[in-house]
Amino acid sequence: MRIMQTFIAALGLFLFVAAAQAAPQAGKDYLAINPAQPTDTGNKVEVVEVFSYMCSHCHEFEPKISAWVKQLPADTQFRRMPVVFGRSSWEMLARTYYGLEAIGEIERIHPKIFAAIHEDNVILQQKDVLFDWIAKQGVDRKKFASAYDSFSMGGKIQRSNQRAQSYGINGVPSMVVDGKYMVSTTQAGNYENMLRIVDELVKQVRAGKKAAAGTPRQKTVRN
Hints:
By secondary structure, this protein is α+β, with helices and mostly antiparallel strands. Helices cover 56% and strands 11% of the residues. Helix 2 packs antiparallel against helix 4, helix 3 runs antiparallel to helix 4 and helix 3 packs across helix 6. It has nine helices and five strands. The chain is globular, with a radius of gyration of 21 Å. The chain has a single domain, classed as 3-Layer(aba) Sandwich (Glutaredoxin).
């Protein structure tokens, strides 16, 4: 009897794991973006993290996605996209992201911004506090201020807003694979499953790109 119970328990565990690792399904595990949106990565598979520094869930997700990015294949390119959702405080921090990116400081400062807001309670959505804090991190204040207030910044924010709408983003963190698929914790349930689904979608897109590249062009026959 005990052997049978053990067998049933083991079988149940196996089926549970198998179900968890099943191929993701459109409409259930992710949403197909229709129409598919253009990417900025050429022939590489593009993976976009849509986030906000003000989002506590994005703060929790940050160390997980930072570790995940390190194992991406060479033909896959990751980028981040701060979203605003019409909130002035979120726009300030989106400007902060793009400003630091413009002067080559974003990778070093990115996780520190999350920690400052969500762990140290620094009010970075106030401009004077933000600029003072940025300078304390060893960033050139004048360079950052110039990038933050640049004429092109408005265009970057507008483009981010437009893309978020085109992707169908209504919450963060969310991830977009090659402009075709959107994954959020609403569908995935947790961060680990979210990344697993993105991995599977990346594989699908990579396979599609390879198949397309290997398809010979039809010759035009002229009479």
